[in-house]
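FW: tagging you since you asked about this chain on Friday. Here's the raw sequence from the shared folder, copied in full. Didn't touch anything.
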Amino acid sequence: MSILGYTIDDECIAKAVGYMNDCLSGKERIPDRREKVHNWDIFTDLMLATWIRRFTKGNALANKVSDKWASIITSAFAGGVYDRDAYELAYQDTFGIKPKGGRLVDFVNFYQVLLIADCLGAHTEAAVFDYILNHESGIYYVYDNPLSTPPEAFMSKQASRYLTAMELMTGYRRNRPKLQFAMDWLNRNKNENGMWDMGATVKDHIHFPLSDDWKKKSVRESDCTYRIRGFIDAVVVS
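HL: got it, structure written out here
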């Protein structure tokens, strides 16, 4: 909903954020079944804080979670490059338990990438950004190939997922200029009208469509162009 311009000032968003805050505080419980493959309470706090901070940076509980993860990641990159042993040690020191399950061992997933983007010092942010950009398996939950190489097929779900990953990377404000290669990729795929069309297959009901329907190609083109220009604007306004 954020791509459509909804903010914390809109009733639907404020209500959702309020519910997530209640879950984060323990007043409410999310209805999902508890999973045993990872530290469930830590993982749910991570999810809730990430979504809350997507709409507001003024929530004390969510900020407390983001500060913890920023501290862990800062420790992991203290030497200038990622140190998995340092990451696990910092995780254990912070939460008092050893990490369990691959989901939390590898921090390059949607939640951590989004949550810590604006919480790191300049040197750590640069190292983290470069690490994510060249991560062999992309960003978990989002895109499963290295972000440094754009997909060949522009009119594809893969390209839409790639754009989602690039949108996440714009959160690392100091390093936005490094995304020029993605801008070049987009410009190569601009059509003769100076707009973009990612094709009907990107209609996933998550990122597209933005309009009520795509019966007309011109509407789909307009939606794709609106989203891509939003990314370009975020990179240009560094």
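FW: The CA atoms of residues 180 and 235 lie 8 Å apart.
HL: agreed, and Residues 150-238 form one domain.
FW: great, closing this out.
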